[in-house]
Amino acid sequence: MKTSINIQDQFLNQLRKDNLAVTVFLLNGFQIKGKVKSFDNFTVLLDVEGKQQLIYKHAISTFVPSKNVQIEM
């Protein structure tokens, strides 16, 4: 039986490993530009101009990386 692939975790982990800049769109319309440093089931830790911002995933609408991210499907 094939195990399910968690696309969200693969995507965030590749952003982190590649140290890619990403724009995070929040549900309230705000945009945050930074780099993913870490994440768990509920939060994403971004480095934004040398400062840390912990964002709850339930507040996030969209991630837009500075270039395409390769993940396994």
Briefly, what is this?
The chain has 73 residues and is α+β, with helices and mostly antiparallel strands. The chain has 1 helix and 5 strands, in the order αβββββ.
Q: Averaged pLDDT, please?
A: 94
- Please bin the fraction of helical residues: 10-25%
What is the class in the CATH system? Mainly Beta
CATH domain topology: SH3 type barrels
Straight-line N-to-C gap: 16 Å
Q: Order of helices and strands, N to C?
A: HEEEEE
**Could you tell me the number of beta strands?**
5
**CATH architectural type:** Roll
Strand content: over 45%
Main sheet strand line-up: 4-3-2-1-5
What this model shows, in words?
With 73 residues, the protein is of the alpha+beta class. It has one domain: SH3 type barrels (Roll), CATH 2.30.30.100. The radius of gyration is 12 Å and the shape is globular. The chain has a five-stranded antiparallel sheet with strand order 4-3-2-1-5. It contains one helix and five strands. It starts with 6 loop residues before the first helix and ends in an 8-residue tail after the last strand. It is 16% helix and 45% strand. GO terms for molecular function: RNA binding.
Any chance you could write out the topology, listing elements then pairs?
Elements: H1 7-18, E1 21-26, E2 31-39, E3 43-48, E4 51-56, E5 60-65
Antiparallel strand pairs: 1-2, 1-5, 2-3, 3-4
Domain Sm: 9-69
GO biological process, one term: regulation of DNA-templated transcription
Keywords: RNA-binding, Stress response
